[in-house]
Design a protein that fits this description.
heterodimer; A: alpha+beta; elongated; B: mainly alpha; two-stranded antiparallel ribbon; 5 helices; 2 strands; disordered C terminus
Chain lengths: 537, 190
């Protein structure tokens, strides 16, 4: 019969049943009932050879199975039938737990089913024979057909040494059935599997650590660039890591509509767009005295009331001195003041220029351009190339400049000898107070072959230029009070219709600006060099 | 057998959501940790990170609603009470992180005065006013929650691998994309 295991007993029916009950109880399981079919038959006046069934179990073993499929409750608790055949032999039959598992489509219950099968085979073996303890090998095992006399030597129990569990062990097992049954895999296959799991987890964690730069201490990361700024300039918490000293401005941009031929950005539609900006001096020292030779910066945020923002951070150099983030980093180190002299080491700068000839050429080009006297008459350049996409989806590569309406004055004609630490900013503030300052936004369109990935090389001067409109600055404010202090003038905050070029500096600028922004926004803010009193607010 | 058994697997849409989001979340964690350490690829990765985060947020909401209205398969009997408690708690943690990380990211960009650029002209409105301190706190929170998500993911993966390779209780079948009913039918037919 399918799923029924039948074993011959060395004892008579009554003794077999008594031994069985004792075995069950010895393993801490509860006997729920003994039903003597033969006795009940006799009461009804019918004849039946000795036939008795015992119901027993442990809720800790059965409940998880019923949690998996309640229908198995019909076959629980466990039952063992003791019966005598016509020839006087005593047999013992029980439902094979493996068959119950299959019958009720239990998924994932292999361990409990296996424990149950082991417990049953041991109990049954001990009940049917006392020659061997804790073994299932003595009872002759008859599979499937109790009517036949064919006996089969036990095979399952022999092949599974774990089946021979001593009574105390079994008790512990059954009381822990609701615990994770730890692997009874052979040790030889357990270890490689554990190693595989450990290896997979360590591999993923390692990949994550590698991606995050923890395993590459020498990689140039945004954090490393920011830290180098801190190292070169000293710690100035709360301030920008570069262009630390500045004043904030606001005004508007009047678009004349010409820019729309190049880009579909809403900023280039005819009309007026409010702007927020910041003039600054390059370097990470927020309280350094203004020096006319210091590179000047202008960050502008264009904020159309409806539509997307455009942010740009420009400087007053005609080209950028470096082509790559790595060169920028090395230049930063080479220009760091020497500990002994307090001045940059010229030998290090020479070595840098020898290593990066494009930087030497760019610096030569920069020096061939006369610098203006102050912020108000400086031309501010995007330097990096960008892509503009117009409404017809036509793409061009561009650079742009803010070209001052204020007339050019060379350095030195202003009273540079004065000991005013904020002379450049004070001059800017005074001129904004006199009258609004204006710049034209001039967009230069590249021709095929013009370098778009190299900010050290100027584009030829005959390139098409589009005057997209006028920037007017009519208000100046200290960093201490302006919302522009907490703006990251990330050059890659671009509206639809503008996109990054293949210039490697752009992504790096975006990354380092973000790093600097995150650092300073989490630090305590200190009053800036140019106070609200000075800006006249 | 004509009785209604509890499901042996998660609902099909739950399994699809699980694996889709597993790929998205892992991609997102790797993009996140890579971009903050990258100069050259920072911009490209950030441009993916933002819209992918919002897609995860939308899917996480759908998944949470789906979770409330579907019947779950039972835990396998091989899982102890403590293990079930841990599994339930880590599931709650994962749901919380799937929802919190994009929201913190969105709030962080809002507080940092950044435009919330998705793709093309599509932008999202800020959900918080610009505030440097709030930005700094949320920025740090975003990182900590991301690490927590990664560690929780590793723990989840370890547990599943342990059950699959060591306990061998077919725990993974509950989440398999294919149906395990056909396998059963085959066993029955044998």
């Amino acid at each position: 019969m399918e799923g029924l295991t039948t074993i011959q007993s060395n004892f008579g029916p009554q003794e077999t049943m008594d031994r069985l009950e004792a075995e069950i109880k010895a393993r801490g399981m509860g006997v729920l009932a003994r039903i003597n079919h033969a006795a009940l038959a006799a009461e009804a006046g019918l004849a039946l050879r000795p036939t008795e069934v015992i119901l027993f179990g442990n809720p800790r073993g059965g409940t998880p199975l019923m949690q998996a499929n309640q229908a198995i409750g019909i076959d629980l608790p466990l039952k063992v039938l003791v019966w005598q055949d016509a020839s006087g032999k005593t047999w013992l039959s029980y439902n094979d737990p493996g068959w119950l598992e299959k019958r009720h489509e239990l998924a994932g219950a292999e361990r409990i089913i296996a424990s149950m099968a082991q417990a049953l085979s041991t109990i049954v073996a001990n009940a049917t024979s006392d020659t061997v303890q804790c073994s299932a090998t003595t009872g002759k095992r008859l599979v499937v057909d109790p009517g036949s006399t064919q006996t089969i030597e036990p095979s399952i129990a022999q092949s599974a040494p774990q089946a021979f569990i001593s009574a105390p062990q079994l008790q512990r097992k059954s009381s822990e059935l609701d615990q994770t049954p730890l692997a009874d895999l052979p040790r030889a296959s357990l270890i490689p599997r554990l190693l595989a799991i450990g290896g997979a987890i360590a591999g993923i964690a390692g990949l994550f650590a590698y991606a995050g730069g923890w395993l590459r201490p020498h990689a140039l990361t945004p954090a490393r660039v920011a830290e180098t700024f801190q190292l070169v300039n000293g710690p100035h918490p709360g301030f920008r890591r570069n262009h630390a000293k500045g004043v904030c401005v606001s005004g508007w941009f009047n678009s004349n509509g010409q820019g729309a031929t190049l880009s579909k950005a809403s900023i280039f539609q005819p009309g007026r767009v409010p702007v927020l900006g910041r003039f600054s001096l390059s370097g990470g020292q927020p309280f350094a005295a203004d020096a006319p030779q210091t590179v000047r910066g202008l960050g502008i945020l264009f904020k159309p009331p409806e539509g997307e923002e455009w942010r740009t951070a420009m400087i007053n150099l005609p080209v950028f001195p470096v082509r790559t983030p790595q060169a920028f980093y090395e230049q930063l180190l080479a220009s760091a003041p020497d500990h002994a002299t307090g001045k940059p080491d010229s030998a290090r700068m020479q070595a840098f220029l020898a290593k990066y000839p494009e930087s030497a050429r760019a610096i030569q080009f920069i020096h061939s351009h006369a610098m203006s006297s102050g912020f108000e008459n400086s031309t501010f350049n995007s330097l990096n190339a960008f892509r503009f996409i117009n409404a017809a989806s036509a793409e061009v590569w561009v650079r742009w400049s803010m070209v001052p309406v204020q007339s050019f004055e060379p350095i030195g004609t202003a009273d540079s000898g004065r000991a005013d630490k904020n002379q450049l900013f004070d001059a800017l503030i005074a001129s904004i107070h006199r009258h609004p300052l204006e710049w034209h936004l001039i967009i230069t369109v590249a021709q095929p072959g013009d370098p778009t990935d190299n900010a050290t090389i100027p584009w030829p001067s005959d390139r098409q230029q589009v005057d997209a409109g006028t920037l007017t600055i009519d208000h100046v404010e200290s960093d201490d009070t302006s919302p522009a202090r907490d703006i990251n003038f990330d050059p890659l905050v671009l509206p639809n219709g503008m996109a990054a070029s293949d210039d490697p500096l752009l992504s790096a600028r975006s990354a380092v600006y973000s790093q600097s922004f995150t650092r300073r926004e989490g630090e305590h803010k200190h009053p800036s060099a140019v106070s609200p009193t000075q800006t006249g607010k | 057998m004509t009785t209604t058994n509890p499901p042996t697997q998660f609902a099909l849409q739950s399994r699809i959501l699980h694996w889709l989001m597993a790929v998205m979340l892992l991609t997102m964690l790797f993009i996140g940790v890579t971009m903050v350490a990258s100069l050259g690829n920072y911009h490209k990765l950030v441009a993916i990170h933002r819209p992918l985060g919002i897609m995860i947020l939308i899917l996480a909401v759908i998944r949470l609603i789906n979770r409330m209205f579907t019947t779950l398969p039972p835990f396998p009997p091989t899982m102890s009470r403590q293990e079930r408690w841990i599994a339930t708690a880590s599931e709650k943690l994962l749901y919380g992180l799937m929802l919190a990380l994009p929201l913190v990211g969105w709030g962080m960009l809002s507080a940092g005065h950044y435009p919330i650029v998705m793709f093309g002209p599509l932008h999202l409105p800020p959900i918080l006013p610009a505030n440097p301190t709030v930005y700094a706190v949320l920025r740090k929170t975003h990182t900590i929650l991301a690490y927590l998500l990664f560690v929780t993911f590793l723990a989840h993966l370890s547990a599943v691998l342990f059950h699959t390779l060591i306990v061998r209780d077919r725990l993974l079948h509950r989440m398999a994309l294919w149906s395990i009913q056909s396998r059963k039918a085959k066993i029955k037919g044998d």
